Amino acid sequence: MGGVPVAWWPEVEGRLGRVATLVQFSSAFCAPCRATRRVLADVAGMVPGVVHVEVDADERLSLTRAADVRTTPTTVVLDAAGREVVRAAGAPRRADVIAAVGAAAAAADRSDA
Fold this sequence. Notes:
The protein is of the alpha+beta class.
C-alpha cells in the first residue's frame, strides 16, 4: 500500500499498536459489523502489540470519507508507523486477520532495516 502514514489517522484519536492497528469502520445497523468486532477484538486480545479501534462510519462521516471507506464493515490494518498494509470489506476470517497482522509486522521490519 504505502510508505507514508495514512493522513486520516490523527482524526481517529486512538493510539497505534506496537505491531499493528486494526481499524474497523462500522455502522449501527450492520449485522456483519458485530461479527467483525468479535474477530478483531479476539485477535487484538491474543496478539501482543495489536490494537483494535472501531470507528462509527455514520457518526464520523468526514473521517470515513477521508479513509475512502465505501461499505461497512471495512477493516484497515495499519503497521506500527501508521502505514496502511491491508484493507478488506466484509466480515473477515480470523486467519486472514492474523495474516494481515503478520504482514504489518513484516512491513515494519522492512522499514526499520
